[in-house]
Structure formats: structure tokens, C-alpha cells
Amino acid sequence: MQDGQQEFVFDEPELLPWAKRIVVFDTETTGLDLKTARIVTACVAELDADGQLASPALEWLADPEVEIPASASDVHGITTDMARSQGRPAKEVVSEILEALRGYLAQGIPVVAYNAPYDFTILHWEALRHGLTPLDPRPILDPLVLDRAVDQFRKGKRRLENAAQFYGVELSDAHNATADAVASGRVLQALVRKFGSKLSGDVNAVHDAQVDWSAAQEASFAKWMRDNVNADFVENIGWPLKL
Asked: Average per-residue pLDDT in the chain?
């Protein structure tokens, strides 16, 4: 800086209040079918306003009680033998995930999940499979839905890896439940800093808005699929649960 030249310091944009304390949630599973997939690993963790862990992350490795297809193991690295020898009973794991999430949601702390219907719908069916009470997931924040809503015309893919790169968030171990969960929360906070003026200060209003935004996004994608790929394609509407 030359003599007489004024130095300007620009503060980082302020987070909306509901983004200053968030919980992040992610699962890795046996497959993509929302009704039949089983949870293999999961993470629930609380992040502070700086995107740092406010307490040690809760992590689970479950024995899903079915074979883990190679296509799934190739993604998350957990084989059937590993899950059976090192994992805990699926019912115990699912119960503890439900208890952790239910406790945070009861306090009104939003839970962040990237592509939320995947994780929450699988968790819903896992709960019923094991005779447990399913979660009523609210308030939920889904960076995938929010990113598409606030920056609608940005070109390119919107997977977590792409969003992390766009928002300057490190994601060094994709498809690890904890790494993905933490990165999702940090993407959410970066998105709020950049586009907070487009979002309500009421987290429940944001939750409700995502229901409508997700439906519109699914309908738009379905139209593109019918026009370009499969004339019989039908959208699967539902957020944060597809039931």
C-alpha cells in the first residue's frame, strides 16, 4: 500500500440468524432405491457460525443385514464383510440417528442435508422396517434446492462436489458421510452469505419455500426428460420426503 492510500477492510457478509447454528446429516447406503436402500454409514454433527464442529461428530457404521452391492461399495468403500465385522446392529444405529436428529429439531435447530429427500426418505423407511417411529423432518435446509432457487440460471452440474467448488468449500473425501455432511453445511453457509437477501429470516418459511421450489424443479426436470429422453418420464414430487 502506498503512502496516503487508504486501506479498506471488507467484512464477510453476515449470516442469517438460522444459519449460525446448524446440524448436518448425511448417509451412505446400499443403493439408490429410497424404499429398499439400507443405511451403511451416517453422520450427524453440529456446526457453528464459522462452519466448524461445535462438538465431536456423531458417526455410525451399521450392519445393514443385506449384501452391499459392489456398485455401492465402490462409492463409499464399505464392503459387506466390513459392515458385518465392524458395524453395529442396524436397528440400534437407526434408533440413535433418529434420536439425535429429533433432539436437534425439537430445539428448532435446522438440519442441513444435500438432496434431503434421499437421506430422509431412506431413514423414514428404515425406521418403519425396524418398528421405530419415523421422523417428522422440520426445519430442513437443502443446499441443492436452495442453490437451484437462488442461482437458477447458473450452468453446470449441481452435485455436492460442484457446489463445494463453486462456493469455495473444501471437500477432500467425497462419499464419506462425515466429509459430505460437513461440506454440505459449509456450502449452505456460503450460499446464505452470498444470496441471503433472497431468503427469509424465518427458517420455517425457508423450509416451506423449499417444498414449492423442489416441486417446481422436479417438474422442470421431468419436462426436459419427456422432451429429450423419455416421453413417459414421470416426476417424483416430494420434499423433504418422497413417500
From this structure: 94
